[in-house]
Amino acid sequence: MEYLTIKNWDKWQTYRKDRGQPPWIKLHRELMRNIEWVSLSDAQRGQLVAIWLLAADRDGVIPASPEIIKKLCHMDSLPDLKLFINYGFIEDGDIMTPECRQHDVTDTEGEAEAEADTEEITTLSGKEPDISPPKPQYKPTAVSVLDFLNEKTGRNYQPVKANIDMIVARLKEGATEDECRQVIAKKSREWLNDDDMNQYLRPATLFNRTKFAQYQGELVRVTQ
């Protein structure tokens, strides 16, 4: 069974070893200034906190299966692990045997649990879930879209992770490069000369998951 790790777990979740594992996790106020965090929906933020609570039992390690996480965290819907990976909350890599804390199950019990989890996945979906990382062709397309945004707005947004990952996430959800360009062009026409709205011609707004879906729906479809 494969596992994923929470990014920077040791940095943000530090405890006194002599007191054992606390029954809580730390949520830092810095999150409120994190562009990826504020770009998530309320439901996605709730899922992420639940995943962090799950990770606390194994030093930042979680199952790489959305189905298993949904069951263990009592979620109503499957978590979008690829989105959390794209946004940098989960490390894009897996380990085969997570190191358990002293109060965790024994090796034998852990192996039995992993086998049961694998059987559960097969029962629910009929196949192993796809947790492959983003395909490499998304990034060049995202860079091209960002260049188009700079061209249309006269800005100088750099192809850094905070900008590129949001575009990549929309492309992975099925948006085409042409649709991304159309959204940029339409909003540039509407907002570029508007002193109040001009500031929102930025990747964080245009490619926010909820807002982009709205802007995408405003595009005029040409019928043959």
Q: What is the helix content?
A: 40-55%
Per the principal axes of the C-alpha atoms, what is the gross shape? elongated
Cα distance spanning the termini: 49 Å
Q: Strand-and-helix sequence, N→C?
A: EHHHEHHHHHHHH
Structural class: mainly alpha
Kindly provide the radius of gyration, computed on alpha-carbon positions and rounded to a whole number of angstroms: 20 Å
Number of separate strands = 2
How many separate domains?
2
* Percentage of residues in strands: under 5%
Separate helix tally: 11
Low-confidence stretches: 94-129
How is the largest sheet built, in terms of strand order?
1-2
List the helices and strands and how they pair.
Elements: E1 3-5, H1 9-12, H2 35-39, H3 42-55, E2 61-63, H4 66-72, H5 81-86, H6 107-125, H7 138-153, H8 161-172, H9 177-191, H10 203-206, H11 209-217
Antiparallel strand pairs: 1-2
Helix pairs in contact: 7-8, 7-9
Explained architecture:
Helix 7 (about 140-155) crosses helix 8 (about 160-170). A two-stranded antiparallel ribbon has the order 1-2. Mean pLDDT is about 75; it is low at about 95-130. About 25% of the residues are buried. By secondary structure, it is mostly helical. The protein folds into two domains: about 5-125, no CATH class; about 140-215. The protein has helices at about 10, 35-40, 40-55, 65-70, 80-85, 105-125, 140-155, 160-170, 175-190, 205, 210-215, and strands at about 5, 60-65. It contains eleven helices and two strands.
Features:
single chain; 224 residues; two-stranded antiparallel sheet; mainly alpha; elongated
